[in-house]
Amino acid sequence: MWVIPKGRMKGAKEHRVPLIPRVLEILEEMQRHRVSDYVFPGRNRGQPLSHIAMAHVIRRMGVEGVTVHGFRSTFRDWCGDCTKFPRDVAESALAHSIRSEVEAAYRRGDALQKRRELMDAWADYLGTQHE
User: Fold this and answer.
1) Cβ 40 vs Cβ 30: under 8 Å
2) Structural domain spans, the chain
C-alpha cells in the first residue's frame, strides 16, 4: 500500500493506492538498481525525479498534442469506455472528491479492494498489444 499524506494532496485528504503485483515487480527491479533513497531518483544526487520530468520525456519523443495530465485522462476514458467498474471507483482511483455534500457525507470508504481490481485490469490492459 502506498499512502500519500494529506499534505501532498490537493483535497488535503490522505490517499491510499493499492500496490498490485505488477507494481511490486517494478519496485523490486528498481530496488536492484538502487542509487538513491528515492524509487525514481532525479538527475541531481539525493533528489527525487522532477515533477516535470515526464513532460521532458514527451517533448524529447517529439510527440505532439500529449500532456502528462493526459495519462490520467486516458486512464479515466479507459475506465468508462472499456470496463464495467463503477464511476465512483474510477473517480476514487484518481483521488477525485465527491462533489455532492450529501453523497460525501454517506460515502466514507475509498473502495480499496475494487480499486485494486481496477488497477489489476489496467495493468493487464497496458501489458497487451492494441491496434
Assistant:
1) yes
2) 2-126
